[in-house]
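User: ok so my PI wants both of these folded by tonight, can you help

Assistant: No problem, let's get them done. Here's the first:
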Amino acid sequence: MSLSLKAMTYFTTALRYGNIAKAAADLNIAASAVSSAIDQVEAAFDLTLVTRQRSRGIQATASGRTVAQKIERLLEDYRAVMVQGDDLKHAVQGTLRIGYYAPIAPAFLPEILTACLPEDGHVQLHLDECDNDSAQQGLLDGTYDAILFVCDAARPAIAYDPLITAPAYCVLPKGHVLAQQDTVTMAQIAQHPLVVLNRPMASGYYHGLLERQPTAPTIAAYANSTEMLRSLVGRGHGVAILNMQPRIGSTYGADEVVGRPIADALPPLTLAVGYEKDRPRRLVQVFVDACVAYFANPANADCTCVFAGEQE
C-alpha cells in the first residue's frame, strides 16, 4: 500500500503535537482526516504506531517513533527538492542547451547570449548546430531547452515565437557580372552554375525555387554548410541562393562575396525560437526574450538581404 505525502504530513504532525485535535487545528483540517491518516500509515506498515488515549491524546510506540523519524527525513528531502526546483525555475543560472538550424547563428547568437546572461559564470552553455528536423526532435525529447529553427516546417507540437522573416537572396562573387546590379532575377540566376545548400529542408526549398524556372540551371556543387557554399561561390564555382547573410563579405578563403536581393516574388523563410511555453525555466525565458528583442531592433536587419524600399 502506498502512502501519500498528505497522509505522512498529517501523521508526523499528529505525533509532534501528541494530540489529534491540535494537529487538525494547525493543519486547518478536520480531526477525522488526521485520524484517518494515522490509520493509513499503520495499515501501510501493518504495525501499531500510535497509542490513542482518550484523556491524554496520542503517543507513539517505539515502532511509531522510528517510522516517524524516517518519514520526517523523507518529507524534508521532498521539501528541499521542491525548493531547489523553484530556484531552478526562477534563477538565471544552470545549463542552457540550444540547438540551432540557423546557418549564420555565429553572427548573432554570441551577441544575444552576451546581452542576456549574467557575468558571474553561473550559466553553462551547450550549443549544437543541427538540421531543422533534429532541432525540433531535440526540443520535444528534452535534449534542448530552446531551438532556433525555420518555423515554416514546424511540427504541430512545437511552440515558438517568430523572430525574423528572411527573403531569398543571391550570393555572388564580388566581381560577378550580376553583382553590378542592385537586384537580380531568378531567370538571370538560372543562366549561371549554381552551388546549392544541401541540408534537410533547405535543399527542398531551394530546388522548389529553381523548378519554377523554364530553364533548369546547372548544379555545379552541393555543400552542406553555409560557409563552404560561400567559399565555393567566392572562388568562382557558381552562384547561390540563401536567406540569411553574415555581416562580413569575406569567406574562409579570403575571397569576397556579395548578396543581391531577388526581384521575383518568392516565398521567404521565417527564423523562430522554439521552447516549452507552458512552464519555461527563468533562464530559458530570458534567452527567448533576448532573441525577440535582438531581431526587433532595426539595426540587426542586416542579417537579411532585402530591397531598400522593403525595409521598415
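One down. Here's the second:
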Amino acid sequence: MSLDDLKSRLPEYAKDLKLNLSSLARETILDEQKKFGTFLAAAYAVGEPETLKAIAGEVEDKLSAEAKTGAKAAASIMGMNNVYYRFTHLAMAKDYKTLPAKLRMNVIANPGVEKADFELWSLAVSAINGCGMCVDSHEGELKKAGLSSEQIQASVRIAAVVHAVAAVMRAESALA
C-alpha cells in the first residue's frame, strides 16, 4: 500500500485530508528522513491498520532501517511517557512531579538516528497523544538543535493529518 492507495480509500467528505496528505508528502521544509519518519511515527501512534499499512508501504524505500526503527521507537516510548507525564502534570497532588518515574527510557539516550530526528518524531507523537508537558520538552530540545518553528509545525501538521485520516478510516471500517 501507499499514500495514494490510502487517499483512494478515503471517502469524499474527507477530501481535505486527501489534499493535505498529498501536500505534506511533498513538503520540502523537512528533509526526507524527518518528514517520512514523522509520517511513520504518527502512523504507529494512531495504530489504525489501513493507515499504518499505507504509510509503512510509502516509507519503505524512503527511510533506512535505522530510521524506521527510530520512528517506531519514538511512537513506542511516547505511548508510555505521554500517559505517565500527562498524569503527573494533571494530578492535583504535585508530589508526583518529584517522584522518579522508574520507567525504562533507554532509547531516548540512544535512538539509533540523529537526536533531532528522534525528538521531532517524539514531538509529533506527543501532540497526537495530547501530552503538553512532553510537547514542551521536545519542542525545547528541537529549538536547541536549531530547528525552526516552521519545521516543528510541519511535523505536527503531519501528525494531525495522519491522526484525522486514521479516525476516518476507523469510523468507516466500523460501518462496513
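The chain has one domain: 3-175. The domain at 3-175 is CATH 1.20.1290.10 (AhpD-like). Good luck tonight!
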